[in-house]
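Could you join me in thinking about how sequence relates to backbone shape in a protein? Would you write everything just below, so we can both look at the same thing?
***
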Amino acid sequence: MANDDRDILEVLEEELAFIEKGGYGRSVRTPWLEKSIFQDSLSCLNYGYPYRAHPCNECSLIDFVSPEHQTMAIPCHFIRLNEAGETIEELERIENQPKLEETLKGWLQTQISAIRQQRASQTTGL
């Protein structure tokens, strides 16, 4: 269970905005370095640390990872992004950045919408 005090809705919205602004594009300074989904954005509790200051199981994204993958080195890369079950791990292996980003954007939009709907129904008591 996550021990992350950040609002998951804000984390997902910020991740979506990051992607839409080209956040995972190659850096001009280090074009040879690939960026890692979630790990190279503010979504990651360990962003900016040269080492892992926080275990991944403290991150709110862990709630989207199936139990069998929660102990992996990068568990958020095993989130099922669509009905086909594609994960970041799989999509990074095929090296198709546009497909990876579009699939991730779709997942983010779905999760954001679901959280908003859930919160709206809790507010109205439905």
About this structure: The mean pLDDT is 88. Helices lie at 8-20, 88-93, 97-124. The first helix runs from residue 8 to 20.
